[in-house]
Amino acid sequence: METRTAAARLVVMDIDSTLITGEVVEMLAARAGSLPLVAAITERAMRGEIDFAQSLRERVATLEGLPVTVFDDVLAEVELTPGAAELVAELQARGWPVGLVSGGFLEVARPLAARLGITRVNANRLEARDGVLTGRVAGPVVDRAAKAATLTAWAAELGLPMTRTVAIGDGANDLDMLAAAATGIAFNAKPVVAGAADVAVAGRLDAVLALEPFAA
Q1: pTM of the entire structure?
Q2: How many C-beta neighbours within 10 Å does residue 69 have?
Q3: Number of Cβ within a 10 Å radius of residue 192
Q4: Which of 17, 55, 106, 211 has its CA 20 to 30 A from that of 40?
Q5: Which residues contact 96 (CB under 8 A, 6 or more apart)?
Q6: What distance in Å separates the CA atoms of residue 168 and residue 208, rounded to the nearest whole number?
Q7: In angstroms, how far is CA 145 from the centroid of its own chain?
Q8: 3-class secondary structure, 104
Q9: Do 15 and 100 form a contact (C-beta atoms < 8 A)?
């Protein structure tokens, strides 16, 4: 059973370019030979220039034919953002619930979360058939609206008011989540996100611990 302090806050983080240094879809694309195209689409999506769901489907289509064993390769390549492990450890020591919500992929997000002792995870799933990716997303796309809805649902499950929620993200897909949380933190973020968030932080992820919501 989860133990929480009376002053606990729910902290929900994006994964790609927030909890980790890179973008999982680009790591997959590098193995599919489509990295230049995918990286260009990712950049436009994170700046908010194109619809996220559309951009995701375009990028995922280039992954058709990759074996599902590619997820193990990508997991071995993933690097945590400096300060990420320290932030998660501190929040867990305080008894604060932590969740991860990503426009990336559950196949990587779930084992990554498990390494950090995080059980709340929501991300897209990639369709596979006979051990090979089909180039399609399985189920609804986790877009900016879904991210905000996930934050709200987790807070309700925990019995925490929205006034005790914190969201951290870097791209346009995080905007609704940052707005829904009591405190929305833009981390190493695109200008459109830094301008919309309550506060912007750069550098190490555990630098957020100096902010008011974490000191209260």
Answers
A1: 0.94
A2: 9
A3: 16
A4: 106
A5: 4, 5, 8, 9, 10, 11
A6: 9
A7: 13
A8: strand
A9: yes
